[in-house]
C-alpha cells in the first residue's frame, strides 16, 4: 500500500473514531431517562415528585453532606439535573458602573426599598458534576444593566432552566433567553424586550418545552403575552396577548385526548391554549392576585391555586371547553389556606399545599376537594418560599431559614425528621438518585449518605 493510501485510511479511521465518539456521547445524553433526572422546574412530571429517587431523611452541616459548593452571585432558580450534569443559573454584580444610570442614592423611594441597578451584571450558566460539585463549564451569556430592580426576596436569576436532552434553555427574563447545548456552546439567543413587574418585584416564570416547542409566558404591568418558539432555532411559531397583570406561575403542559394543552395560572383567568396554534381551549376565572403557584395535574383535572390578598384553589376538568367559570367543569373550589409563593404538590393520590408562605399545611382529596388535613402547623419552621417535593413515600418541606422537615406522605401528619443547614433557602429542592440538592443564598448542597 502506498504512503498516500496509508495516510488516507489513517485519517479515515481517526475521523470515524471522532464521529463514533460523538455519537456515543450524544446517545449517552439521549439515553438519559427523564424519570431519573430533574430536567425542569418541579421535576420529571412538573408536580414536585420523583418516582425513582431515594434521598436521605436525616442530615446536618456535619452529617450526610456529600458536597457543598459556594455559588457566586445571587439566584433563586432551582438547579436542573440531566444525567451526570447539574445546571444552575446565577447573576453576578460586576461592580462596573453605567454612568448613564442614576446611583441608588439618587433614585426615588420605592416600596420595600427596591432600587434599580446602575452596574453591569454577568448572567451566568454553570454546569457542575452532580456527583462531586466540580465545575464542568461556565458560560457568561450576557453582561447587562438590568432594566429594573427586584424585591429583596427575588433575584435576577429566578427562572429555572429546562433541558430537553439536547438543549438547555436559560431565561433571565428581560435580560434575554439563551439556548445552549449541553457542553455550554451558545446555539441561539433572543432578546424579548423588557417587562415592568408589579412594584418592580422582578421576574420568575420558568420556560417549558414540549416536542420541539418552547413556551414563554410574560405577565407584567405592560402588555402581557404568551409565545411559543421553535426550540431548535428560537424563531416564533405563535404569540398571543394576554389580559393579565404580573404573575409568576410557570405554565403546565399536559396532553389530553391527543391535544397538547398549555395551562397558565393567573389572576384574571386560568387559561388553556392549544400548543399547536395558540387557540384558546378553555378559561376559568376566580384566582387571587400576584399568582405564583404553578398548576399540577393528575391527567383528568388541573389544580390551580393562589393566596395573596385572597385564597383560591380549584380543580378544573381537562375536558373543558370555553368559559367554565361557575360550571360543573370546576369539580371543587376552596377559599382558605392556599399558597402565595410555594406551588402545591400532588403525590400518592393526595394534594398538599401551604397557607400563604406560612408553615401551615393542608392536605385534600384531589378528586373531591375534601379536606383531610386542615391547616396544620409544621413545627420548627417560620416560612416557606420553596415548593414541597416528594419521593419514596415522604414529603420534604424546606423552610427559608435552613430547616427541612420530612413528613410521611399521608393524610395523618407525622414528622420523620427536622434537618438544619446554615444557609437561607428560597429555591425549591431537587431529588435525584440517592441525593437531595438544596440551593441556598450562599451555597449549593448535595445531601446524600
UniProtKB/TrEMBL annotation:
Keywords attached to this entry: Signal
Record field: compositional bias (Polar residues): 26-39
InterPro entries for this protein: PQQ_b-propeller_rpt, PQQ_rpt_dom, Quinoprotein_ADH-like_sf, WD40/YVTN_repeat-like_dom_sf
Leader sequence residues: 1-28
Keyword Iron-sulfur: no
Residue numbers spanned by region Disordered: 26-54
Keyword Signal attributed: yes
Highest taxon of source: Bacteria
Residue span, Pyrrolo-quinoline quinone repeat domain: 124-371
Protein name as it appears in the record: Outer membrane biogenesis protein BamB
Amino acid at each position: 500500500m502506498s504512503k498516500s493510501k496509508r495516510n488516507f485510511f489513517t485519517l479515515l479511521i481517526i475521523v470515524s473514531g471522532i464521529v463514533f465518539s460523538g455519537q456515543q456521547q450524544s446517545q449517552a445524553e439521549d439515553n438519559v431517562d427523564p424519570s431519573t433526572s430533574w430536567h425542569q422546574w418541579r421535576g420529571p412530571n412538573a408536580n414536585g415528585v420523583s418516582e425513582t429517587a431515594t434521598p436521605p431523611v436525616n442530615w446536618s452541616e456535619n452529617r450526610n453532606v456529600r458536597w457543598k459548593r459556594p455559588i457566586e452571585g445571587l439566584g433563586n432558580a432551582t438547579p436542573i439535573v440531566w444525567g451526570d450534569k447539574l445546571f444552575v443559573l446565577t447573576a453576578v454584580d460586576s461592580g462596573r458602573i453605567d454612568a448613564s444610570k442614576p446611583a441608588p442614592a439618587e433614585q426615588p423611594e420605592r416600596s420595600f426599598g427596591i432600587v434599580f441597578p446602575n452596574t453591569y451584571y454577568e448572567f451566568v450558566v454553570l454546569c457542575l458534576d452532580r456527583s462531586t460539585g466540580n465545575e464542568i463549564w461556565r458560560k457568561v451569556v450576557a453582561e447587562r444593566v438590568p432594566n429594573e430592580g427586584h424585591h429583596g426576596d427575588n433575584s435576577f436569576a429566578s427562572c429555572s432552566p429546562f433541558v430537553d436532552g439536547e438543549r438547555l434553555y436559560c431565561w433571565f427574563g428581560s435580560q434575554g433567553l439563551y439556548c445552549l447545548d449541553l457542553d455550554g456552546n451558545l446555539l441561539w439567543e433572543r432578546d424579548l424586550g423588557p417587562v415592568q413587574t408589579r412594584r418592580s418585584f422582578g421576574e420568575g416564570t420558568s420556560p417549558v418545552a414540549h416536542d420541539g416547542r418552547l413556551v414563554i409566558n410574560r405577565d407584567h404591568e405592560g402588555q402581557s403575552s404568551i409565545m411559543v418558539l421553535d426550540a431548535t432555532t428560537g424563531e416564533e411559531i405563535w404569540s398571543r396577548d394576554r389580559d393579565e397583570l404580573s404573575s409568576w406561575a410557570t405554565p403546565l403542559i399536559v396532553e389530553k385526548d391527543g391535544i397538547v394543552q398549555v395551562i397558565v395560572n393567573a389572576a384574571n383567568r386560568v387559561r388553556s391554549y392549544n400548543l399547536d396554534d395558540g387557540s384558546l381551549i378553555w378559561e376559568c376565572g376566580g384566582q387571587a392576585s400576584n399568582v405564583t403557584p404553578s398548576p399540577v395535574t393528575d391527567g383528568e383535572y388541573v389544580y390551580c391555586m393562589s393566596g395573596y390578598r385572597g385564597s383560591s384553589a380549584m380543580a378544573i376538568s381537562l375536558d373543558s371547553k370555553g368559559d367554565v367559570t361557575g360550571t360543573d367543569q370546576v369539580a371543587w373550589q376552596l377559599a382558605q389556606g392556599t399558597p402565595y409563593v410555594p406551588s402545591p404538590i400532588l403525590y400518592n393520590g393526595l394534594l398538599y399545599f401551604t397557607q400563604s408562605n406560612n408553615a401551615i399545611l393542608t392536605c385534600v382529596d384531589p378528586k373531591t376537594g375534601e379536606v383531610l388535613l386542615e391547616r396544620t402547623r409544621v413545627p420548627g419552621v417560620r416560612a416557606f418560599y420553596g415548593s414541597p417535593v416528594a419521593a419514596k413515600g415522604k414529603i420534604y418541606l424546606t423552610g427559608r431559614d435552613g430547616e427541612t422537615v420530612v413528613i410521611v406522605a399521608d393524610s395523618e401528619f407525622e414528622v420523620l425528621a427536622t434537618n438544619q443547614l446554615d444557609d437561607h433557602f428560597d429555591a425549591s429542592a431537587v431529588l435525584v438518585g440517592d441525593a437531595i440538592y438544596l440551593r441556598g443564598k450562599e451555597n449549593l448542597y448535595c445531601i446524600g449518605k
